[in-house]
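new request in #modeling-help
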Amino acid sequence: GQQLNQSPQSMFIQEGEDVSMNCTSSSIFNTWLWYKQDPGEGPVLLIALYKAGELTSNGRLTAQFGITRKDSFLNISASIPSDVGIYFCAGDDSGNTGKLIFGQGTTLQVKP
Amino acid sequence: EPEVTQTPSHQVTQMGQEVILRCVPISNHLYFYWYRQILGQKVEFLVSFYNNEISEKSEIFDDQFSVERPDGSNFTLKIRSTKLEDSAMYFCASRRDRVSGNTIYFGEGSWLTVV
């Protein structure tokens, strides 16, 4: 089945540093999504990417949809303690039943 | 902003018991989903539901699982005879349609503990 490979698995950084994480897939997706999950809560959408090559920002977050439609990255600039959480990439299988396929997640810890 | 609501937020049940998790999707949405997340792992797709029937299910969604939309607002997930390995956070989600750009909204989750 479709799988997304997300890396790195975890990151421990100093406040103020920039962060980068990425996702690759063996399949093409028409939409890539990045979610953040805080402990005990549901995933919250950060950025959605709809076109190959698209670069989109949301505050300190920037994400890009790869040209091949098989990959995406998320950058967080000038990290702050509240950036702590698990970040998931997801591919939108909108062509079939519209389900999302999730990556394994990147756990981010920020040291003040 | 409209949201997907789930109840209960947390349920503890004995192995072998039946559990029903409830969800109220966003009112004008047509596609409904259940996902599962075992502690420390990724979010996994269980089942999608459209037009009052299952449109796709994963390998996880075996005969112990069923879904239902008993009325115009609720969407339920039933686990007939729970096992220890069913302990997880279960997320309901909905979307208006499958047009790219109309993405999926998740509920806060129902944490199921099987003892």
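bot summary: Residues 52 and 71 of chain B are 10 Å apart (CA to CA).
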